[in-house]
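Table 4 source record.
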Amino acid sequence: MSSPLNDFQASWNDLPADQFLSDGGHYRYRRYSVFNWRYNQALELLPHEPHYQSTYRNAMNGGIYRDYEAFKNNIIENIVLQEIIEWSVTNISFYQEKKWRIQAHQFRIETNNTESGKPTPEGIHKDGADFILIMLLHRHNITGGVNHIYDNNKNLLFGTVLEELGDCILLDDRKVWHGVSEIHALDTSKTGYRDVLVLTFHQQVLR
């Protein structure tokens, strides 16, 4: 029987291939949308825009405008997405911030017997946000995918594997760097994959 959570999780089965991997890889699938969140108001979908990162933030794929397909409407309206955002905002609004700009990414990283999967092909990096949520939706037939968090001198602070649906990391992008190790298929006769939701939060001045 379908439920909002089942529908949300299943939407990762319908992500377009990432056409902007400069290493020529075929391991990443994604969608991208941008929202405003205002205190005591509904989540606001902003007009669709390409994703941009500087080469300082992303030496591998930065410096260009990457136009990805948007989240589907039924996922934008799904209560699960809205509750994840509400939970995140509650945990990052230390000073009663009233408005956040949110860049939302659906990622699937695949691996098979010919190609490893690279969740962060750019390596250790920052996203140029205030806060970042990384939440696991599904792991299937893989090993690896260790999330590593580093201080601003790039000294390793800790590493952890997101294993179960809903496992997440909420980090302050201004204070740490992060990266994820490659994934490899446990059974190389079958495809393995790792599905995550990434939300980057940018504090906005309320007008």
